[in-house]
Design a protein that fits this description.
78% of the residues lie in helices and 0% in strands. It is mostly helical and 205 residues long.
């Protein structure tokens, strides 16, 4: 009994230690970034661990006024939200078909999408830049959203397919008995159940 309690305490301590360590690793860059944002340019050059002599909160209004930070943040939010919507609209039906149907070509299509996951985004930057120049789409929301969607589709289909495969097929059978077609089954039953994995994809986007 004593050995059991000791092992349980060690296990609990190890779990708390790992949790605290992961929290520190996660929040440390945010804390350093926040502290650096309150420094002058000269203080930033002294190193990221240096403590500012004075907290310069004026840096935030200056960033908004000089660097047009609000516009940049707005652009990022707009592109990210639209990219997420387009990605989910395209990836969810594709993942549903791959996970639930038995067509012969689906396995090859799935592996093709998986190959896209393994391609580093940075390897395509030069090609994307050349395409953008050739099409005259630099500084275009549409082109940027299409590129981000293309890069995120493989990952989204991989995540959604795995999640849908884990759902009980009895849901599909019950819905079809009630008269649901594939479209209604996907939009009314499968997609609401997939909210957790959609949230995961939203974080990754």
């Amino acid at each position: 009994m004593k050995n059991y309690r000791t092992s349980k305490r060690i296990k609990t301590f190890a779990q708390y230690f790992i949790a605290v360590f992961m929290a520190v690793v996660t929040f440390f860059p945010l804390i350093v970034t926040f502290i650096s944002s309150l420094k002058t340019n000269d203080e930033i050059l002294l190193g990221m661990f240096s403590i500012p002599k004075e907290l310069h909160f004026q840096n935030y209004p200056d960033a908004i006024r000089i660097a047009n930070a609000l516009r940049s943040i707005g652009n990022s939010l707009f592109v990210a939200i639209v990219t997420l919507i387009v990605t989910v609209v395209i990836a969810m039906p594709a993942a549903y078909v791959i996970a639930r149907k038995s067509f012969g070509y689906l396995k090859a299509a799935y592996f093709l999408f998986m190959a896209g996951v393994m391609v580093p985004v940075h390897c395509t930057l030069v090609s994307v830049s050349k395409i953008s120049s050739a099409l005259g789409t630099k500084n275009s929301y549409t082109f940027l959203i299409l590129i981000y969607t293309a890069f995120n589709l493989s990952q989204a289909i991989f995540l959604f397919t795995g999640y849908i495969r884990g759902l009980d097929r009895g849901l599909d059978e019950a819905a079809k008995i009630d008269g649901c077609g594939d479209l209604k089954l996907l939009t009314m039953i499968i997609t609401p159940i997939c909210k957790p994995i959609i949230a995961t994809e939203a974080i990754l986007v």
